[in-house]
Amino acid sequence: MRTVLAVFSLVLTFLLIPLREVNGDSPLALARRTLASTGVRLERAEIAVWGDVATPAGPQRGDLRLGRRMAWALGIRGPLSVERGPRTVRVSGRQGDLTFVLETVDLAQGIRETVFSAWRFTNRSPGEQDALSVAGPLEELGLHPEVAVDLVGSGPGDLRSGERSFLKNLFRNEGGSEQVGVMTGPAWFVAGLVPQGGPPVLVSGREVNLQVAVSYDKGSGATQITVGAPVISIHY
After folding, report:
1. Can you give the residue range of the structural domain that contains 46?
2. Angular region, 38: left φ>0, alpha ψ -120 to 50, beta rest
3. What is the pLDDT of residue 160?
4. Are 140 and 73 in contact (CB under 8 A)?
5. 221, 52, 14, 233: which is closest to 126 by C-alpha?
6. Is residue 27 a contact partner of residue 127, using CB atoms and an 8 Å limit?
7. Position 236 in a domain
8. pLDDT score of 2 more than 70
9. Burial class (CB in 10 A: 0-12, 13-18, 19+), 229
10. Phi, psi (deg, nearest 5) at residue 222
11. pLDDT of residue 164
12. How far apart are CA 133 and CA 130, in angstroms?
């Protein structure tokens, strides 16, 4: 199941484009309310941030320096891993439940793209302070990270009966509608836009700010539900 979610979310990540600002609940508040409406028990959560950095074309000598600054701001004090390819530099570090990655790619005609991501796992119900602990230090460096929250829960039995209707009802309960739906093996992934959610992102040409995945594990006899706002994170 983790592989299925990761592959689907990886595809979405390359399509994520932050859109207009809207007034609404934080990603955490929306994800928490949506998961609670399913009646399942929260098992784990992830707070993730991502964004890009304006970097000039040319040598990549500054990437390690920038990576060190960002890692230090996040409280990562251990050594950083540096991986260099013909056109890429990847700087990463980890401390406790927090992981950080900065990656630069030299594109055609001297164009460079530098993106960053950081994520923190927890086995308890996260609070707004957990999100601020990841996004806040990067904002203080002048960056503008997007924030995503994943909440994972499970309940006994096979809750997939009428699964598509079940997912649609989650969006209807929030006054929104399903925008994008994908079935991958035993799992359904649905993304949609709800009016009280946070700023949307663009997925397959449609605005979404809430994503839900449902799957049944025969081994444990339980149904797993993952809620992501605005989408399920790549790092799940």
Report:
1. 2-229
2. alpha
3. 67
4. yes
5. 233
6. no
7. no
8. no
9. buried
10. -130, 155
11. 60
12. 5
pLDDT at 1: 46
What angle, rounded to 10 degrees, do the helices at 27-38 and 163-173 form?
130
Question: 3-state class of 52 per DSSP?
Answer: strand
**Is 43 within the bounds of a domain?**
yes
Distances (CA, A) of 120 to 44, 146, 214: 11, 14, 22
Q: How many angstroms separate the CA atoms of 222 and 20, rounded?
A: 38
pLDDT tens digits for range 93-129: 999 999 999 999 888 777 888 999 999 998 888 888 8
- What is the separation, in whole angstroms, between the first and last Cα of the chain? 10
pTM over 0.90: no
Contact 179, 201 (CB under 8 A): no
- Asked if residue 41 belongs to a domain, the reply is yes
- For residue 17, being part of any structural domain is answered with yes
Count up the domains in the chain and report the number: 1
Which residues, other chains included, contact 143 with Cβ-Cβ below 8 Å and sequence gap of 6+? 51, 53, 70, 116
Mean pLDDT of the chain: 80
CA distance 42 to 210: 17
Report the distance separating Cα 48 and Cα 50, nearest Å. Answer: 7
| 121, 106 contact by CB (below 8 A) | no
Sheet harboring 210-217: ordered strands across? 81-84, 88-95, 98-106, 112-122, 41-53, 146-156, 222-229, 210-217, 187-193, 177-184
